[in-house]
Specification:
Helix content is about 45%, strand content about 15%. The chain is α/β, with parallel strands linked by helices and about 325 residues long.
Length: about 325
């Protein structure tokens, strides 16, 4: 009996090992060919401001000089509802209206956790609220935004929260059930598809596919790891990302797009606290071109660069190379 039990366990372990090896081979082995990609850019008013830019000038230049016509725009609860029940939409109105004038299309990121540090952009008045009360206020805030912009011809998709399953940033809590409430609210107010974004490197994106109509993934290549105090180039191949997207399509019938392709530095400090020399260790024109080629091999139909404000800032510092090269991508 013991011999049979031992053999059964060995057989189960061999099956598990076999499945694991097949999965690894599926994700990592294979050749990738470059495909045409429609490029877009992320824009963060906050990021532009912390870099010391005239954010309106930077935004207009992204539309006019750079020529971008697909934007992913972050909204910020602490900017819009700076005081409980008092909303200031002037700055977001301007961004949407400028996109409308140029027939540009926007993914509008809404919720508590939206692009840019500290990730969760909670106004001071709401920080002392308990989780339940804070969630009630977030739903009121989201409803205001959706009702205000759902009739805009520039609005293409909603993105509800930014990487809601990824424990990154200064966020007091995480609640998947509340995320579903946010999604249900948006769907009750507007028929546009909802993107749920997910970290590109480690999960299989199944959770994002379960919640969203479209999966948006990040794609970072060279980053600083504080744990080992060194820069790391992720070893993942283009095939790895493409095959994960294929699994999402096969199992959930949903599209995967690249909503955040690294095109700015990721160093030991935030950009505005780093020297240009340090910044260029993780992003320069050569690295930028490599990331473009990598994304083309992954094969998503569209990718949104993360870093356009930084390109503009570098141009202001007398280093326009990335900005000028990026212009060729949008023509």
């Amino acid at each position: 009996m013991k011999k049979k039990t031992k053999k059964t366990i060995e057989m189960i372990l061999l099956i598990i090992l076999g499945i694991f090896l097949i999965l690894v081979a599926y994700l990592f082995l294979g050749f990738s060919k470059k495909v045409d990609v429609f490029w877009g850019v992320n824009f963060s008013q906050k990021q532009a401001q912390v870099l010391g830019l005239d954010w309106k000038e930077a935004y207009a230049s992204i539309l006019d000089d750079l020529g971008a016509r697909k934007l992913k725009v972050g909204t910020y609860w602490d900017y819009i509802e700076w005081k409980k029940g008092e909303y200031s939409f002037d700055e977001l109105d301007w961004q949407v209206q400028e996109a409308e004038k140029r027939n540009a299309k926007i993914i509008l990121v809404i919720g508590r956790k939206t692009p840019g540090w500290p990730e969760c952009h909670v106004p001071e008045w709401a920080k002392s609220l308990d989780e339940e009360k804070q969630q009630e206020e977030i739903l009121k805030y989201i409803e205001r935004i959706v009702l205000r912009y759902k009739d805009s011809k520039a609005l293409r998709y909603w993105q509800v929260e930014n990487e809601p399953f990824f424990p990154f940033g200064q966020c007091a809590w995480r609640d998947d059930k509340f995320l579903q409430k946010e999604i249900d609210l948006v769907k009750s107010l507007d028929s546009r598809k909802i993107i749920i974004s997910e970290s590109g490197e480690f999960p299989l994106w199944f959770k994002a596919a379960k919640y969203g109509d479209i999966v948006g993934t990040t794609m970072y290549r060279k980053v600083w790891f504080g744990e080992i105090k060194s820069y790391v180039v992720y070893p993942f191949t283009a095939t790895f990302y493409r095959r994960k997207a294929s699994l999402v399509k096969a199992l959930f019938g949903k599209e995967v797009i690249g909503v955040e392709l690294q095109a700015e530095p990721w160093g030991p400090k935030l950009i505005y606290d780093s020297t240009i020399e340090e910044q260029e260790k993780s992003m320069d024109l050569e690295r930028f071109k490599k990331n473009i080629t990598f994304a083309q091999k992954v094969g998503f139909s569209e990718n949104y660069f993360w870093g356009a404000e930084w390109w503009y800032w570098m141009k202001e510092q007398g280093k326009p190379e990335i900005w000028e090269y990026a212009k060729t991508l949008f023509k």
